[in-house]
Specification:
heterotrimer, A mainly alpha (596), B mainly alpha (469), C mainly alpha (466), A: 596 residues, mainly alpha, 73% helix, globular, B: 469 residues
């Protein structure tokens, strides 16, 4: 169980910072130091035990032997390194971001545990270890989203996320139960190695449901947009490498099973749908972070599309590059919001160009998401486009990419263009200028990583994906045609955004209500959620009335007995002659009985 | 050979006597010490279970003319449940603290209840089972009666009438068994061995009578009407032992019943259906509750349904899964009631429509409440996960896909509890004025329950290994 | 002369002393009279206990008294109960100590009932036991006259019916002896005999408070002073059961099927009547009167079982109930003297006197049949005996009734534990002693019933001559 040491520093760091109430400023640095240690250990573990698998028995009873299994195969190490790499950035950023001293210890504790859970998830090799990490992710994310519990929307957002996640957790548990009963093992690799049976279909569908809740896929996607109520570092973390990535990672891990069960088309369909929903909502949204959240939905949808196309390597490439640009963009959004006094509406946010380093780093992120060569995003998207053998899928993907280019430039342009008044100008300049260093430099580093991540395209095909049969997958390649179309789409998106939001200075789409409703369909989805919730609640009301009725029915039964008793009591009237008559009647009764 | 159980009985009896004689002065110390001592005995018995350093069967002559002896056995199941009952009772006792003027009477009742719990979980014959059952009921009745809240009159009356009705059914069933076994016997293992000689029709009536008795206690729909009132009007310590331990009397009885009569093998599917109905019924009924304690009551009814479902699977994993669920649920519901009690102590209300933003000043209680929700939705590393995994593997292998239906109930009740938590604990729109500060003993009680949930969740093998031996 | 005969003479001497003490009671002061009576009763307890522990053989004393396990058990039991009632009645109003004179006579009759070896003897001792009770109620004052007159009339009916029944059976059993063999075979197959059986049961049912012969019971129990209610329900009712056992199970042994049916019907009616009527009572004393009716119904379950085991269970329950009811009436008496009568007035008893509330709760719980108290063991034995005799329905009805009974017992208990601040109650030492003894018996033989069960077992087998 050697790889388990990679999570030790984070767990330890979490608890240490939790108890640093008196010196809360140091809490952040402590957590950061421990996350660096974690990164070092992770790197060491990858070198030391690459390709190894570990298992110990957790408990065993009556044929059920539950192991804790870990593995350090390529896929595991990939995610482990990504998480370990991103964590210090997030911690560093949070040091500047979290300016409420009393809440710092709790924040760094929850964040550390969150990161540790994701690392455990990365190296898990069976359903048990995976499920532990899976649930811990859900619960820590719940606590983090509801971190500002005193805000109006935070409790609601946290509840929405945990309710959705709970559905997934239970689906996963059901799948585990069914899988055990068919295979008598929880180990991913043993399950994939054993011959496929039809019994796998339902558990796999349940796993997909769980994945859809975790990775915010239609119809469970709406919690992700509301999760923006959490502190920004959490969003940056949650959307880049942790939590939502867990779902798609699991699909990637179990892809051979989905392939054998002919469920790829389900993955593909839901992926496309979600990508579309994410892209359209992003273009209509005004909340600076929610736009990015819908963008994440879209990204995850695209990864699922790639997996659905059986383009494993393309999916993993996009998986890697998406991590960096999304982390960067969220951090950038957080910094900009901070300078604007926590304003959230892009039409109210101003002066995003005041801090040069911040702005330039942001440009890298925007470029990557739009798919500008040679940033990471370009390779990721083109690789998936190239794998799309079906023309309709290809067309839809291209459309989504166009839209994503439009909305990200909209996201960039509108805050740039918002007019500044005189007094405000000086104030914003000082705010941007005096921004904590930790809220700017990590972005620059991430911008660098976005560029570097492009090299994953060259490096990925050489990795030995043990435990999965790589040759069955579509190879990783980039067709020139797809590359050129993608570039055209990115530029087209740029021009459209420029025309509409800079030249025409369009403020919204209120004049086209029907179109707005169609594009901004999150309202409709939320309405549908509330209808379902209401239906359950009404049913609860009916059952509750029945419960009362049952109670009163029983009480009435008691009353009935008392009524009989009351009648009986009347017999005893204090008259001795009544008693004598009763005596005679008794004797007669006895005589009748003996004669019978 | 150390006779763990008799020593435990004597220890607790001495503590009760000390409580009665010395009054409230040292009551808390003496009572807690007694429970800790018994806990140490039981821990020793866990470690010595395999090596045979302890007596697994303890017997003294009792009523020879009925063939009843004071016969107790220490099985893995009884050890698990006794451990649970001890820790839960300990938490309940610690919670109430030192200050109350009648601590000693509360402690005596709690100790008496614990005595009955140990006796019931370890009794090897139905006669003793019945006696300890009733002693436990009466102890809890007096706890509700003497220390309960506003409408305890109705609550305690309902509780008592339902309980005694259950006892009456149980008594009749036990008498029938006694008469219809070849050599009139109350001994559970003897009855199990010879139960096939009982005519099927009689078996069915015995089964139905006992099922109803145990279903009332668990509680299972439609025998649960006493539950909301009793849980909500009992004092916090009372709710803790009532939901944590007393409901396990029924669950344990159900387990004994299902593995005692062969007729269970033909009836288990129907009972499974009842369990599923009960789960959904309780999950939906929980939604309209305004009182946090009532909500917790319906939650615990959902878990009772799951326990019953595990028992009806009639296989190894279902059996031990439901026992582990009894353990896990004991701790979880104890924590939930302790947390609710503490919140009520801090804010003077537990009404969902009034309570807002509890986390702002009652931090420990609010986090405990959240943790109990995690626990009851079966988060891994809590005992509930191990139990749910075992139970549902059991039910799924017995009933196929139908076996995982109860999990939907967990979603429903979990979703509702999160809703309640987000309203009462997190939202601070209209913050409430606090009326009390949560004391150290109260925090200690929460710590005990959380520690137990995590300990048996992370180290399930400690108890489950007993089964393998 | 065998030692057992010395025992017989000692017992006889004791009874003679009792007569002497009673007759001379008016000439002495209360303290002296009660001392002599108490000493005699203690001696009687010691004697019977020594017989029971030594398990002496059975024999006839002067051909009138049969000394065997059955009679000695009840003689001892009644002596204890009489002693308890005497302690309770120490402060009872009585001019010239007439109360103690009556009490002494009653005591003789009560002790003689189980020992009687012939029907005439039985009838006479029943008379001796029940007539003084009428006076003992009446001497308490004018407002008790009504009760005593009701008791007088009902006793009169009972006695006349019993005499008539004896007349009916005379042609078949000229000796009127209570010996099984003499009756067996001779009195078979005649409707007259069956009628005699019915009349015996009916006559004794009046004293034993079986429905529908028991309608006078609530009035009299409520109307009489509580110490007399204790005596009537704790002792006089029990001697009726003893007489019923002696007559029915020996003389009419051949008719077991018939009397089993009769007892079953009576038992069911009595249980339901007692329990249902008790549910709506507001006066605690009257509630206990109904409760004691229902207990009579339970006792009859053992009779209906018509087996040695059933008899044993009935004997056990008779012992149990007499202690429970005397303990409960002791508390009622105390509270009644303070003007506390209805259930509402019992509110807050626990804060006024915790021991009193606890004692009454335990006694009531025992009556309701909650383990590990003696009442539970009694009911358990009774209902198992019914099942053993294949009377499943009767057992079920019995259990159902004990469930109903929890309703009104719990009502009293719940009220007692409601908070209400009032001044403390002080209990006289004598009453504490009586309550404590009753409570000890209930708890000790509830937790460890084996000795009491074996005593009942031996008594039952001695009666049946097995």
């Amino acid at each position: 169980m050697f790889p388990l040491i990679v999570i030790a520093p984070l767990v330890l760091g979490g608890f240490v910072s939790l108890f640093m109430r008196g010196r809360s400023h140091a809490a952040g640095w402590t957590a950061f130091a421990f996350s660096i240690a974690s990164l070092a250990l992770a790197s060491y573990a990858v070198v030391h035990s690459f390709g190894q698998a570990y298992a110990i028995t957790w408990f065993a009873i009556g044929g059920l032997t539950v192991h804790m299994a870990l593995s350090m195969y390529t896929l595991n190490t990939l995610l482990l390194i990504i998480v370990a790499l991103i964590t210090p950035f997030i911690m560093l950023y949070s040091i500047g971001y979290m300016d409420v001293p009393s809440e710092r210890p709790r924040f760094f504790f929850e964040l550390s545990i969150f990161a540790a859970s994701m690392m455990l998830f990365a190296i898990s090799a069976n359903f048990i270890a995976m499920f532990i990490a899976w649930e811990l992710l859900g619960i820590t994310s719940y606590l983090l989203i509801g971190f500002w519990y005193h805000r109006e929307r935070a409790p609601y957002a946290a509840r929405k996320s945990i309710t959705t996640i709970l559905i997934g957790d239970i689906a996963m548990l059901s799948a585990m139960v069914l899988i055990w009963n068919s295979f008598h093992t929880f180990n991913f690799y043993s399950i994939m190695a054993s011959p496929y049976t039809g019994a796998m279909q339902i558990p796999l569908l349940l796993i997909l449901a769980a994945v859809f809740t975790k990775s915010a896929q239609f119809p469970f996607h709406e919690w992700l947009a509301d999760a923006m109520e959490g502190p920004t570092p959490v969003s940056a973390f949650l959307h880049s490498s942790t939590m939502v990535k867990a779902g798609v990672f699991l699909v990637a891990l179990l892809l051979p099973l989905f392939y054998e069960a002919h469920l790829l088309y389900v993955i593909l369909a839901f992926g496309i749908a979600t990508a579309f929903i994410g892209a359209t909502n992003a273009i209509a949204e005004r909340h600076i972070k929610k736009i990015l959240a819908y963008s994440t939905m879209e990204d995850l949808g695209i990864i699922l599309v790639a997996l659905g196309l059986h383009a494993f390597l393309a999916a993993m490439l996009f998986f890697i590059v998406q991590t960096f640009y999304k982390a960067l963009l969220f951090m950038s959004a957080g910094s900009i919001m901070k300078a604007n006094g926590d304003a959230e509406n892009i039409y109210l946010i101003k002066g995003s160009t005041k801090n040069r380093l911040l702005f330039v780093s942001t440009l890298f992120g925007v470029g990557s998401i739009a798919g500008i060569f040679p940033l990471g995003g370009f390779f990721g998207k083109v690789a998936i486009d190239s794998a799309a053998s079906n023309i309709y899928v290809y067309a839809l993907l291209t459309l989504v990419e166009l839209v994503s280019s439009v909305y990200i430039f909209r996201w960039l342009f509108i805050p740039m263009r918002n007019p500044l008044t005189k007094g405000m100008d000086a104030e914003l300049t000082s705010k941007y200028g005096n921004m904590p260093k930790t809220m700017v430099y990590p972005l620059a580093a991430l911008a660098l990583l976005i560029v570097i991540s492009a090299f994953a395209y060259a490096y990925l095909p050489n990795l030995p994906f043990a435990g999965t049969s790589t040759n069955a997958y579509a190879p990783l390649h980039i067709s020139l045609m797809a590359a050129s179309i993608e570039t055209i789409m990115a530029l087209l998106g740029f021009s459209v955004a420029y025309c509409v939001y800079v030249k025409m200075n369009l403020r919204g789409m209120s004049s086209h209500a029907a179109l707005h409703a169609l594009v901004y369909n999150s309202v409709a989805v939320n309405w549908a959620y509330s209808i379902i919730a209401k239906a359950f609640y009404e049913l609860g009301g009916i059952i509750n009335s029945f419960d009362y009725a049952l109670y009163w029915f029983i009480v009435m039964g008691g009353d009935g007995t008392v009524f009989i008793a009351e009648k009986l009591r009347r017999i005893i009237n204090g008259q001795i002659n009544t008693y004598a008559v009763a005596f005679a009647a008794g004797i007669i009764l006895l005589v009748i009985i003996i004669t019978l | 050979m150390i006779q763990i159980l008799f020593i435990s009985f004597i220890t607790i009896a001495i503590a009760i006597a000390a409580n009665i004689v010395f009054g409230r002065r040292h009551s808390q110390h003496v009572s807690i010490a007694a429970l800790l001592l018994v806990l140490i005995y039981i821990s020793y018995s866990i470690s010595a279970f395999a090596s045979g350093g302890i007596a697994l069967s303890e017997s003294l002559p009792y009523i020879s003319s009925l063939g009843v002896s004071l016969h107790f056995t220490l099985t893995p199941i009884s050890i698990m449940l006794i451990t649970m009952s001890l820790i839960v009772t300990l938490a309940a006792m610690v919670w109430q603290g030192f200050r109350s003027s009648n601590t000693h009477s509360m402690n005596s009742l709690l100790l008496l209840f614990e005595l009955s719990a140990i006796g019931l979980f370890a009794s090897a014959n139905l006669f003793l089972f019945y006696i300890f059952w009733d002693v436990g009921v009466i102890a809890v009745f007096f706890i509700i009666r003497s220390f309960g809240s506003a409408s305890r009159d109705v609550a305690s009356k309902n509780f008592l009438i339902y309980s005694i009705f259950a006892s009456a059914l149980l008594l009749f069933a036990i008498m029938l068994i006694y008469f219809y076994t070849p050599v009139g016997s109350f001994n559970i293992s003897y009855i199990t061995a010879h139960s096939s000689e009982i005519p099927t029709a009689i078996q069915e009536s015995i089964f139905m009578l006992m099922f109803m008795a145990f279903a009332i206690k668990m509680p299972i729909f439609p025998f649960h009407s006493w539950m909301p009132n009793a849980y909500s009007n009992a004092p916090t310590s009372g709710s803790v032992v009532l939901a944590g331990v007393l409901s396990k009397f029924g669950a344990y009885g159900m387990l004994v019943l299902f593995y005692m009569l062969p007729v269970a093998e033909t009836l288990n599917e129907y009972i499974y259906a009842i369990a599923v109905i009960s789960i959904f019924y309780a999950a939906f009924a929980a939604m309209k509750q305004n009182d946090l304690k009532k909500m917790a009551g319906y939650t615990s009814m959902v878990e009772s349904g799951i326990i019953l479902a595990g028992i009806t699977a009639l296989n190894y994993l279902g059996k031990y899964g439901s026992v582990y669920m009894m353990l896990a649920h004991g701790f979880t519901i104890a924590l939930m009631f302790i947390a609710i009690g503490s919140i009520e102590f801090a804010y003077g209300t537990r009404s969902l429509s009034i309570l807002r933003g509890a986390v702002s000043s009652a931090k420990s209680a609010s986090y405990s409440f959240m943790f109990s929700i995690f626990g009851s939705t079966g988060m891994p590393l809590t005992a509930g996960f191990v139990a749910e995994l075992m139970i549902f593997i059991g039910t799924a292998s017995a009933f196929g896909l139908y076996g995982i239906i109860p999990l939907i109930g967990v979603i429903l009740v979990g979703a509702y509890m999160y809703l309640a938590a987000s309203r009462s604990i997190m939202s601070t729109k209209e913050k409430l004025q606090e009326v009390g500060i949560i004391s150290k003993p109260q925090k200690a009680a929460m710590a005990i329950a959380i520690a137990a949930i995590l300990f048996f969740g992370i180290f399930p093998f400690i108890l489950l290994n007993l089964v393998r031996i | 002369m065998a030692p057992i005969e010395y025992f017989g003479y000692a017992l006889f001497a004791l009874l003679a002393l009792l007569v002497l003490a009673s007759v001379s009671a008016p000439f002495y002061r209360r303290k002296k009279a009660s001392f002599v009576l108490g000493a005699t009763l203690l001696a009687s307890i010691a004697l019977t206990a020594s017989y029971l522990f030594a398990s002496g053989s059975s024999f006839y004393l002067f051909n009138i008294f049969k000394i065997y396990q059955f009679s000695m058990l009840f003689a001892g039991l009644f002596s204890i109960l009489l002693l308890l009632v005497m302690v309770l009645s120490y402060d009872a109003p009585s001019s010239f100590n007439s109360f103690f004179m009556m009490f002494g006579f009653a005591a003789i009759g009560i002790i003689l009932v189980p020992m009687a070896s012939s029907m005439v003897g039985l009838l006479l001792s029943l008379e001796l036991a029940s007539i003084p009770a009428i006076f003992m109620i009446a001497i308490n004052g004018k407002r008790f006259i009504e009760s005593s007159v009701k008791l007088l009339i009902m006793s009169g009916i009972a006695i006349s019916i019993l005499v008539f029944a004896m007349a009916l059976i005379f042609p078949y059993d000229a000796q009127l002896s209570l010996v099984q063999v003499s009756a067996f075979g001779l009195i078979k197959g005649s409707y007259l005999v069956l009628l005699a059986l019915v009349l015996f049961i009916g006559g004794l049912s009046i004293e034993a408070a079986l429905f529908p012969f028991n309608l006078w019971v609530p009035d009299v129990y409520q109307g009489a002073p509580a110490n007399m209610s204790a005596m009537l329900s704790g002792i006089n009712k029990k001697i009726a059961f003893v007489a019923l056992m002696e007559i029915v199970f020996t003389v009419f042994a051949a008719y077991s099927a018939t009397y089993a049916t009769l007892f079953m019907v009576l038992s069911i009616l009595t249980m339901f009547f007692g329990n249902l009527a008790a549910m709506v009572q507001k006066n605690v004393k009257r509630l206990l009167a109904y409760s004691s009716i229902s207990q009579a119904g339970y006792i009859l379950v053992g009779f209906a079982a018509a087996s040695q085991y059933g008899l044993e269970a009935s004997i056990f329950q008779i012992i149990t109930h007499s202690f429970m009811i005397i303990g409960a009436f002791a508390i009622i008496m105390l509270l009644e003297n303070l003007g506390i009568r209805t259930i509402d007035e019992y509110r807050g008893m626990s804060s006024r006197n915790g021991y009193l509330a606890l004692a009454l709760s335990l006694l009531l719980l025992s009556m309701a049949g909650v383990p590990p108290l003696m009442g539970f063991t009694g009911k358990f034995l009774l209902f198992t005996s019914a099942i053993k005799s294949n009377l499943l329905a009767l057992a079920l009805i019995g259990i159902l009734n004990s469930f109903i009974s929890i309703y009104y017992y719990s009502k009293v208990i719940i009220v007692m534990y409601q908070p209400k601040r009032e001044e403390r109650l002080v209990i006289p030492k004598a009453v504490i002693a009586v309550i404590s003894i009753a409570l000890l018996v209930i708890v000790i033989f509830g937790v460890y019933p084996q000795p009491m069960i074996s005593i009942a077992e031996r008594a039952a087998s001695a009666l049946l001559g097995v």
